[in-house]
Amino acid sequence: MRRLLALSSIVVVVAAIASLAAWQSTLAQEDAGDCSPTDMGELNETNSPLSASGDWSGAECNDSRFHDGRPGRQFMFSLSAVAVVRVDLNSDDRDPILYLQDAEGALIDSDDDTGGSNDARIERELPAGVYTIEASAVGWAGRDFGTFDLSVRIVSGCHDVVDLGTLEDSLSAEGVWSHYGCESAFRSDRSSQRYRFELSELTRVQIDLISVTADSYLYLLDADGALLEVDDDGGDKWNSRIVRLLDAGTFTLETTNWGDRDLKNLQEAGYRLSITRAVDGPTIKLDAILAPERVVQGLPFDIHYRVSNLGDAPVSSVDGRVQVRVRWPYISNWRTSEIDTSGDDGELWGVGASYHSDESLAAFGSQPLEQLFSFSGLFTWRHGPSDVMLDVSVLDPDDKRLSRHVLSRPIMVLTGFDLGALTVSVDGAEYRVVSTVGEDGEVETEVTAVSAGLQADESNSADEDASKLPDDVQLKALYAAGVQTQVLSDLPAVVDTLRTAVDSFFAQVSRGGLPLSDVPSPSAPTRDAMLAVSASAHRELLEQAGFDSSRFQSAETAEALVVRAGQAAALRIERSIDRWSLLDDVISAQDAITTHASVSLASQVDARLVEAAELVLLKRGADDGWDDAAVASALADFRGGIDCRPNTRALSSGDAVLRHLSPVYAAMLDRAYCGILAADDDHDQLLTGLGLSMNPLIPETAVEDRPRPTPQVPSVEWVLTRVHEDGRIEFATELSNGEQVLPSGRMFPADAPTDVWLRTGPVMFGETELGRIYARRLGTGTVEAAFVASGGRPAGAARWSLPADTAVGVWLLSGPVERAAVGSGDDLVQRVADQPAGAGAAQFGDHLSLLSFIENNLQRNP
Questions:
Q1: pTM for this predicted structure
Q2: How far apart (Å, rounded) are the C-alpha atoms in residues 533 and 553?
Q3: Is omega for the bond preceding 385 within 30 degrees of 0, making it cis?
Q4: Best exposed site among 89, 112, 422, 471 by fewest CB in 10 Å?
Q5: Are 256 and 217 in contact (CB under 8 A)?
Q6: Are residues 748 and 836 in the same domain?
Q7: 655-683 per-position pLDDT tens digit
C-alpha cells in the first residue's frame, strides 16, 4: 500500500516539476526588464577563459529569475563554433547556484555543488550561439553580502593522445591532473590524460602510474579502444601497476585518479608514467569474479573468484604470501588469511597455478583451495548501479605489499525483488502483481484486481484504483507472488535433486516396515512450525522403534534408528513431491505458504536425514566400518555441514545417550536443526526482499493473549572433571542452557582420606543454588563423584568413577545428570572446614578463575 501511494506521489511530483520548468522559462524571459546581462564577450580558444566578479549586495538587478527571494546576477557570452564549455561559480561567502540559458531564455542546465565544496559548475557541449548565465546563491536577497567569481572556459585537448613511441627498454612521461584537464572516459568528473605506445613483438610489460599527491587509476586499451585491463592500487601504496603479456601492436593508456578535478583542495597533483619490460617473477592476478547481475539491498549474495599465477616464477621465489580481499561492498568477513606457498599437497602458487573458490569458476586446470572461500556480499544502504571489487596481494615476510591486482564487476542493486508480472489468488479472487524497476534500482510493485473476463496477461484499465484493495489482500498477494518467483521458480530442479536422492536410497533399503502416521507438513516455513513437526516425527520414530531410555544402549541401536529416520524422511519427500505436482498454475496465498513450508522441510531437513542414513549404509558395507578412509571422510564432510550452534535439546526425546554413542546420530539431529534455522532465515530474507515486516498469512498473537514468560532456572546437565599434575582433581558443571559454572572449593585434594565424602561449594545460577558436587576416594584409588541437587542426597544420585590412572590435564564428561530425591545429604558429608589440619582441607577450598577455565580449551571425553 505504501509503495502504491509513493508511486502516485511520484507521478504528481514529476508533473509539478514539468509545469515549474515551463513557468520558469517563461518567467525568465518576461522578467528581464531593464536589467540587461553583463556581456562577457565571445568565447574562443585564444581568449579562454572569460572571467567576471561581482557581489550580491546591490539593491537593483539582484533578483533571481528562477527563485523568488534569492539574489541573482546575469551575464552573457557567445560561441562562434561548437565547444565543450565549463562554467564555474565560486564564492567564499555564500553557497552559489548556477543557471545556464540559451538565446531564447530556455533553461539548459542548473547546478548547486558540482564544483567542489559548495561551489557550482556546469560543463557540457554547446553549439554556436548566445548564452545567458545567472549567478545566484542560497538564501534571501535581503541577506546583504557575498562576493563571487565567475569563469567560462573551453575544455580542450580531451581527444589529444600523447605518442610515447615504440618500447625498447623503457618509456616514460610526466604530467599534472589540473582543474581544467580532460575528463576521464571511464570515471565521471575525473581529470585524465591519454598516452599511446607500440610494441614490435610479444612482450610482458610493466606499466606504473605513480603520484605523491593523488590516488592514481590506470586504464589499458587496445588499438580499437577496447578496455584490456584496469588497476587502482596494484603498485606500492596507492599507485597503479599493470603487468601483462601483450602481443605486438598499438596500445593506449588513460591516466586518471580517484579524486574529482578539484583534487580535494590539493595545490598540484602530478604523476609519472613509466612502461618497462617486466622483470621475471610471479604475477598473481584475479582471473574472474562471479556474482549475480542483480541483487537486492539488504540480502546477502555469493561472490566467487579465481586467482592465478601468470608470471614466470613461483611466489616462493619472493618468499611471499597471498591474500584476497573484498574492497566493495563493505562486509564483515572481507578477506582471506595470508596463504603461504606450501600446502598439504606440495607447493602452492607455482608457475601457472590457478585456484578457485567455487567449482562454477573451475577453468584452466584450476583447483579448489581451502583458504580461498567464497565471500558473502551485502549492500546495506546503496541501490542502483554499483560494482563488486576484489583485490589480490602478494606480501613479503615483513607484510610489505609486493604486488596487488584489482578486478571489479558491475552489479545492479535493487530495493526489492523484481517480481515481473504474474497472477495470484487470495481467498478465491485473482490479482495481478506487477513490478517495475527504475534505472536507480528502485522497485515499485503494484497489486490490482483481475476483472472478470480478462486474461491473466492482460492489465486492468489505467483508471482502476489499486489503493482500494484492502491492505491484507495486497500483502497476501505480494507474498504469494514472492513464493512463486523466488521459491518455486526452480522447483523442477529441486524435485529432480530430491527424487534422485530418494531413489538412490530406496535402491538400498525397502520402503516397508515403517508403521508411521502421515506427519503433517509444517504450517509455515518458520523455526517454530518446522521444529514442532520435526520433533513430533522424531518422537514417533523412537516410539515405533521401541526405544527405551532406561535400558543400556549401543551404537548399533543408534545407527539402526538413523536408517529408520532416513526411510521416514524419504517417504515424506515422496509425498511432498506428489502434492507439489497438483499445484494450480495460479497459486493461491494459502498454497504459497504451505508449499513454501513443505519445500523447506524436504530440502533443508528431510534430505539431511536421508544423507545420514546413507552414511550408515556406507559404513555397513565397509570392512573397517567407521575407520574406513572413505567412510570417515564422508562422515567428516557431513558433520562439516553443521553451520549453526546446535541446540541438543531441540529435537531430544530422552535419547541423549544415543548422541554420545553414535557420532552420525548426533550429526543427523544437528544437521536437521541447522536446516530448520536455515529455512527460517530464508523465510526472513524473502520477507525482506518483498518489503514485508511479517508474513501476512501467519496470525500475529495478540499481546494480551501472550503468556508472560516465567524466568527459567537451568539445571545442571553434566559434571566435568580433570586431574592436575599435583594430583588434585578439579570439578566443574555445565548447565542445560550451555553455560559452564565453576563452583567454589572445587579442587579435590590429592591426599583426601579414603571413603570420606567431600563436597564443593554451591553451583550458583544468579542467586539460585543448584546443588553441589560430591566426591570420595575409594580404597582402589578410584575417585567416585556425584552431583547432588540442592536439597538432594548422594545416596540417590547417579555416580561416575574416575580411575586412578586417568590422564593428566584432560577434561572428562559424565553422563547426563538426573535430579535426585530430596534430602539433607549431610549424613554422608564431611565438610572441608571440619577436617583436621594437614589433611588437605585448605587445598579443597582453592579457587580458579573462570577465565582460566575457558582458556583451558575444554576437551570432553565421555
A1: 0.60
A2: 26
A3: no
A4: 471
A5: yes
A6: yes
A7: 888 888 899 999 999 999 999 999 999 99
